[in-house]
């Protein structure tokens, strides 16, 4: 018997119960913060020597120099060549689709633009790739080759000339799929280091490891704390919380499909969150029955059970409209609109990392190979942030070329406002362009 | 006599001297951090009551309720109506140009897009405005109405339905230009609160002040620390360091213009940085002469002198090409290409917040009214970040609709990779879409 809660929006205590389900604290552990600060300071001061010490201590990996921790491009290729053909092909196909999507993304929103106004003044933005980025790839049980593709390919499509991967290999154990994915995704250099020390090496640079401009990729609490710490020194992507799925169902999808989609989030870890929103109580019962029936067959059933009982919920709503409103309050990472008429509901959905439309769009297809990125905002941050994309590996510079005629129009406006702010040099700089020409 | 350093790239100690000029530490004060953490916790726990207490203590403003700190739309309008006509007109003209530029920006990179692949699978991204944003406007000497325009207008163009401004008014003194700018820029609500307590109120919400999704705008060390603290709970823009200008000159611009442009950055504060890069030593001498001659006439000469002597530099380079390389190392906030042939050098410039092309494009024209945003990345962060823009007030959601045919193609790829990662529910969710159709 699975202890999975059902909530009804008509219940008087719904609001309290709903808030309890959503509650998740991103507060960081002060002890971890302190240890991370020490590691960052050590790497900043002592560079390679500190990286070697921490790698020996935390990853039980003893080498003579940081250079010995670099994986050559040949090693990455050998890992790819050693894969079972089916895996090699799946990796290639997934990479091709992810690349194709991100190329479209670059075209849609990542190109320079400019225009001239009636005075001949040129205005626009120049879009350029970052010079060098670092991609953190976790080791151990959370080693996902698909995450290598999802982080490295947008950087590659953006045109970043140097993509550096770091991945811890505790006791020297390398994950061949991760190395193969790095090969397929076009990673330029790779080091077998991890933890806060890897983040520090990328943020500050050492004699062996070059300083990067941005660090992306998921990691444990130490990595997350280190990334938050170096933010400003370098760019970072979002700090990811536990993964979440929200299925908004109108009752037309086979209940087994929905049950398995809820499992596919719950199997990540005990803190992952799977929620079903549906106005059809009878259908909710069928999904619950499917969950009970399918669960014993799942290899990761212990994790799935803990996740569903701890953080899962089946929510019975008054209507699909109300389900959409609740979805907006949750702002989920993954949102499946499991409906015969998904385009009816999509316009009502304002906040979500990714929206999966229709019964055939299982989240797992999007996780691996549909094309869009699987690095998505969690814990309600879809209210204000976006999937990882090509734009994360580019930056923009405003372009302004004021014509002589334009300077005569803009000068008095700028001078008036500058004097109003008490900034006389600003005002005079504008006025100098009024009084004489560049020729004298 | 002004003690402004000249460096020559040919000098053997150039590298050391150059690094010294650039050195600026963004490290935050532990004492400030501690006080800010206390303020944030108090507002989080006690809401309005804490906001009132801190406002009384820090701004010497005693009122009975937070509601009494709200500025009505009528008060904002009255401030605008009370302006001298020249100021009112300048504000309107600047706002119109800034709005027009940001509308172009939204068209160029802020619209939803999608496409269908050969299987009929729909892929794309939906771009939506944030629900509610907070704009921090400093009080006192750094009260800049132009910053109100630059923060609020991109949010308005993005379509944010609720823009909330906070501005401290120590002892109740209100800046009419700031209030008028809020009116012109379409701010929806405004509260006369400031400091870390204002950031906390916006991030967590109180009974009176609604919780926002993102907080932008400059502030003092307390505000910066508070913003960094609440990052993740809400979105924030970059934490700004001291303002900087870099003038890259080929020696064809009147030296007085360049001198005044250097002043216009230096007059902001003692930590602001003004640097000239030029291959023509004779011209550098003329700029220095202009600086010495013009400085005594500047009302803010004390600040300008402190800034130029503390952080300024005239750098003599071997060539314009070398000047461009050095500019890329600096990654300045404002970059003037003061050349007869700015388009020759622009392609060599990879990192800058804004690039001002040609002698007529003084930075101050861009600061107020050319159109592009004046909120720009500082302290070398132009390596990885961008001007404030419409995109900061939007977020993206991936859209995926896999067709039945598409699910047959994608399913085996996803399943292979999911099994490779040990995530069986992911694999089965994909396989369920292979075995049967939505109809059964």
UniProtKB/TrEMBL annotation, chains A, B:
EC number(s) recorded for this UniProt protein: 1.1.1.23
Active site, renumbered: 333-334
Pathway: Amino-acid biosynthesis; L-histidine biosynthesis; L-histidine from 5-phospho-alpha-D-ribose 1-diphosphate: step 9/9
Gene Ontology BP term (one): L-histidine biosynthetic process
Binding site for Zn(2+): 265, 268, 367, 426
Bound cofactor: record note: Binds 1 zinc ion per subunit.
Top-level class of the enzyme under EC nomenclature: oxidoreductase
Cofactor(s) essential for the protein: Zn(2+)
Pfam families in alphabetical order: Histidinol_dh
Domain of life: Bacteria
GO molecular function terms listed in the Swiss-Prot or TrEMBL record: histidinol dehydrogenase activity; NAD binding; zinc ion binding
Binding site for NAD(+): 136, 197, 220
GO CC annotation: cytosol
Keywords: Amino-acid biosynthesis, Histidine biosynthesis, Metal-binding, NAD, Oxidoreductase, Zinc
Keyword Metal-binding carried by entry: yes
Catalytic activity: L-histidinol + 2 NAD(+) + H2O = L-histidine + 2 NADH + 3 H(+)
Residues annotated as binding substrate: 243, 265, 268, 334, 367, 421, 426
Family: Belongs to the histidinol dehydrogenase family.
Job description of the protein: Catalyzes the sequential NAD-dependent oxidations of L-histidinol to L-histidinaldehyde and then to L-histidine.
Protein's UniProt name: Histidinol dehydrogenase
Gene name in the database record: hisD
């Amino acid at each position: 018997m699975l202890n999975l809660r059902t909530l009804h929006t008509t219940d008087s205590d719904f609001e309290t119960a709903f808030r309890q389900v959503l509650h998740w604290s991103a507060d960081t552990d002060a002890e971890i913060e302190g240890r991370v600060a020490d590691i960052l300071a050590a790497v900043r001061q002592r560079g390679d020597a500190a990286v070697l010490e921490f790698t020996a201590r935390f990853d039980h990996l003893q080498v003579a120099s940081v250079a010995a921790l670099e994986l050559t491009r040949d090693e990455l290729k050998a890992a790819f060549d050693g894969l079972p053909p089916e895996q090699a092909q799946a990796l290639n196909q997934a990479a091709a689709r992810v690349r194709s999507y991100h190329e479209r993304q670059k075209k849609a929103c990542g190109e320079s633009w400019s225009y001239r106004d009636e005075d001949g003044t040129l205005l626009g933005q120049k879009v350029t790739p970052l010079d060098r980025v670092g991609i953190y790839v976790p080791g151990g049980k959370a080693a996902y080759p698909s995450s290598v593709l999802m982080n490295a390919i947008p950087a590659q499509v953006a045109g970043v000339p140097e993509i550096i991967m770091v991945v811890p290999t505790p006791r020297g154990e390398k994950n061949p799929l991760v190395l193969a994915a790095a090969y397929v995704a076009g990673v330029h250099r790779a080091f077998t280091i991890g933890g806060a020390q890897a983040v520090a090496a990328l943020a500050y640079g050492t004699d062996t490891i070059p300083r990067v401009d941005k660090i992306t990729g998921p990691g444990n609490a130490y990595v997350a704390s280190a990334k938050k710490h170096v933010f400003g020194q370098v760019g970072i992507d979002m700090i990811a919380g536990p993964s979440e799925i929200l299925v908004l169902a109108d009752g037309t999808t086979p209940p087994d499909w929905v049950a398995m989609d809820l499992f596919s989030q719950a199997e990540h870890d005990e803190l992952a969150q799977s929620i079903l929103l549906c106005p059809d109580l009878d259908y909710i019962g069928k999904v619950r029955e499917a969950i009970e029936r399918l669960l014993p067959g799942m290899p990761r059933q212990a994790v799935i059970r803990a996740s569903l009982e701890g953080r899962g919920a089946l929510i019975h709503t008054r209507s699909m409209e109300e389900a959409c409103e609740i979805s907006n309050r949750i702002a989920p990472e993954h949102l499946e609109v499991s409906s015969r008429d998904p385009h009816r509901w999509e316009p009502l959905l304002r906040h979500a990392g990714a929206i999966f439309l229709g019964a055939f769009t299982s989240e797992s297809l999007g996780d691996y190979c549909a094309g869009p990125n699987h690095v998505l905002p969690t814990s309600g941050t879809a209210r204000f942030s976006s999937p990882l994309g090509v734009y994360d590996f580019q930056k923009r510079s405003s372009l302004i070329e004021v014509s002589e005629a334009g300077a005569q129009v803009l000068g008095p406006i700028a001078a008036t406002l500058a004097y109003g702010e008490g900034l006389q040099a600003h005002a005079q700089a504008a006025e100098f362009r009024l009084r004489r020409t560049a020729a004298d």
